[in-house]
Amino acid sequence: MKKLMAIAVAVALVLTMAVGTPVLANTTWHVYDGESIQDAIDDAEPGDTIIVHEGTYEENVEVDVDNLTIRGAPGKDKPVVNGSSEEAFLITADGVTVEGFEASSTGNVVIKVLSVDNAVISDNEVTGGNDTNAGIALARANDCEVTRNEVSGPSKYGIRLRVSTGNLIQGNNVSDSDESGITLADGANKNEVIGNEVYDCVQDGIRAEESTGNLIEGNEVSDGEKGIVLDFADDNEVIGNEVSGPSENGIMVKASTGNLVRGNEVVSENGQGIALHENASDNRVIGNCVSAYNNTGIDVIDGSHDNLIRENDVTDSEIGIELVDAHDNRVIGNEVSDSRETGIALADGANKNEVIGNEVYDCVQDGIRAEGSTKNLIKENVVEDSGENGIALDMAANKNRVLENQVSNSGHNGIYLHNAHKNRVLENEVTKSTLAGIRAEGSTKNLIKENEVEDSGWLDLFDSSTPPPLDNTWVHNEYETANF
Fold first, then answer.
1. Furthest-apart CA pair in the chain: how many Å?
2. Domain stops at, among 326, 360, 379
3. By the number of CB atoms within 10 A of the CB, which of 62, 140, 175, 238 ranks highest?
4. CB 53 within 8 A of CB 75
5. What is the DSSP string of 206-264?
6. pLDDT confidence of 24, banded at 50, 70, 90?
7. Residue 369: which residues within 8 A CB-CB, separation 6 or more?
8. b/e per residue, 305-318, with b = 16+ CB within 10 A?
9. What pTM was estimated for this model as a whole?
10. Band of the pLDDT at 17, cuts 50, 70, 90?
């Protein structure tokens, strides 16, 4: 084997340490086209380096020597390792480095890291086949680095971690996976997924499932059904990612608790921007920029509760922020603009939520709307330039509190109660409504008190009960015109 090129960067030299203990120096082996990488591994000792030169190597390389470095030699092309129907590389020893290869396989996994610590997989081009489960897979592997690889489909997963902790997945380019580009599953905990580019994956760009304590930061994810998904995944951080072009959800938090979604930029034409579904709870969605042209910017549904939606900038969406069948959530200090329907919507059992201190403007229909929802607090919001109503309580929106809001330039009514009962509308400032400043229609037992209403195009106050205001209590309001 061309002397297997055991070039003795220290052939068998015996060095003497300061204390006089003799040690063998590490050996650098060279493998050339037509020779076997596996033979070099079988001859190597821990700490050795194997340099593989340009060529095509049809073999399944199993690395079972600790602290071994296997590196593609610099040149015009990377050396190619074709694993055929099995792994191109199977790593079963600690501290192994594999870098600088083109690796391919039509088998289950192209590069597999199994039950080891401190492996490094870097600067490789990895391609799977139609039956490949993963381009790079880590199972029961800890404190490893997967960096600067190019991983392309049609594998089911690009990079997949299972039951693995403390790994760094950084600077990889992952595309064309049939399911997820990067997946953390089944107890893949406390890993860092940073600065990767993931695109054109059929289902998810990055997915964490039944995994906790991971950091997903600074990634660029585009196209596919969903950008970033947390599914039964708790206490993760999704920070500073750019997500574009999903058909369903930009960032989805499903049945998960205690996650932080902060400072992400999400742009979607057809999918939802950020979605909290299926009893997602105690999550924080803070400081994100979201645009979902034909869908909802931030969607909180399916029994999701006790989440904080704060200081997000939601623009150019069909509905800016929507809560449906969701309770005890806080929507605070967000800026919502240019919604083609409603800025902030509470619907169909969205109960006991707090909508406080938001700025909502330039919405085509209503600025803030509650429908079929009870016991919500709508307080200290600024609502401007709504095409229809500034704040609307409609269709059994009962026992809500609308307090200390500033509503101006509404195309229809400033505050509108329609078939809404037992609400408290107190200390709001309402100006320049095209129709009525505050209007109650088909609504009963509401307390409308100490509001300041002026410059309404029709009437400042209007009550449709006969005779008005028979069914509601209007007291201590400041106004100029009313129908009672």
1. 108
2. 326
3. 238
4. yes
5. EEEES--S-EEES-EEESSSEEEEEES--S-EEES-EEE--SSEEEEEES-BS-EEES-
6. low
7. 342, 344, 345, 346, 347, 389, 391, 392, 394
8. bebbbbbbbbbbbb
9. 0.94
10. very low
Residues 480 and 366 in one domain: yes
CB of 305 within 8 A of CB of 326? yes
260-286: average pLDDT: 96
Bond prior to 469 in cis (omega within 30° of 0): yes
Residue 67 has pLDDT above 90, yes or no: yes
How many angstroms separate the CA atoms of 411 and 483, rounded? 20
Examine the domain organization and report whether 230 and 361 are in the same domain.
no
Residue 262 covered by a domain:
yes
Residue 1 reports pLDDT greater than 70 = no
Report the C-alpha gap between 326 and 373 in whole angstroms: 10
Type of residue numbered 200: D
- Do 393 and 458 reside in the same domain of the chain? yes
Residue with tokens 């509401």: 446
Q: What is the pLDDT of residues 145-202, one digit of tens each?
A: 999 999 998 889 999 999 999 999 999 999 999 999 999 999 999 999 999 999 999 9
140 found inside a domain: no
Residue 98 lies in a domain: no
Domains identified in the chain, total number = 2
In this prediction, residue 265 carries a pLDDT of: 98
The residue range of the domain holding 283 is 225-326
Q: Do residue 253 and residue 358 come from a single domain?
A: no
Rounded Cα gap, residues 348 and 369, in angstroms: 12
What dihedral do alpha carbons 169, 174, 177, 180 form, nearest 10°?
40
